Amino acid sequence: MSWEAIARKDFEDAVRSWWLIGLTALFVLLTSGIAYFVRPPAGQTASSNDILNILSGTLVTTLIPLIALIMAYSAIVGERETGSLKLLLSLPHSRADVVFGKVLGRSAAIATPIVVGFILPALALAIGPFTFDAGSYIGYILLTALLGTVFVAIAVGFSAAVRSQQLATAGAMGLYLVFVPLWGAAQFPLQIYLQLSGGVPGWVPLTGQQLFRMIRLLNPTGSFKIVSGAFLNGELFSGGDVTLQVAAIAMLLGWLSLPPLLGLWRFEQADL
User: Fold this and answer.
1) Which of 6, 55, 134, 194 has the fewest Cβ atoms within 10 Å of its own Cβ atom?
2) Where are its TM segments located (predicted)?
3) What predicted TM-score, i.e. pTM, was given to this entire model?
4) Which range is most confident: 8-22, 118-132, 154-168, 193-207?
């Protein structure tokens, strides 16, 4: 199939990128360092899931979106500016093949630093004062790959929708800033407002708690933390707030599918 050829070539191009190699090395060093230095007190043991919870709350949701956005922001617009996109579309490839082939190819590429980045920590956890849960560890790697794929899909969709590399670069930077450092900061003024006003206005059909849950779900990293936290605690679909867990998975799937579809819609209308 046509999209398979595009995905294969895009994967090969992405894994040879110096950006990917450098960020993979950084991810390996940071995950290994956290696994090595975050150890329980002498004479005590801890679960490998405890370390994964620390990684999930700090490193994974900070670095994986950055790697994915850097890897995918120029996936289509970069070829559009160089003229190679016209050559690609002169072959038996549709524009849908290009968009979804690049999503698949770069999603496979983002899995490379994720898998490599968790190998050394696995060795450190397996031989250290930890109880190592291999099933949870592998499952968490798959969830992290899903998070990376979501941000690849967002970046490729944006890359398909814009006309210049400068816009794609600004968009990738803006998306990262909004979803990672600024999302939590934006909630603080809202908390102050709700405390001072005594709650949400009457015309808002949500309670304050429901409003903050919705804000948390809208961010892919927030939905990921909900799902991964429930998984590592053995509560996915079997404990805790199951409705919230289902909503988080639905939100991740929505982010996975909607940006490429919207990008394709704009791409189909574009005059190359």
Assistant:
1) 134
2) 18-39, 51-76, 110-132, 138-162, 174-194, 242-265
3) 0.90
4) 154-168
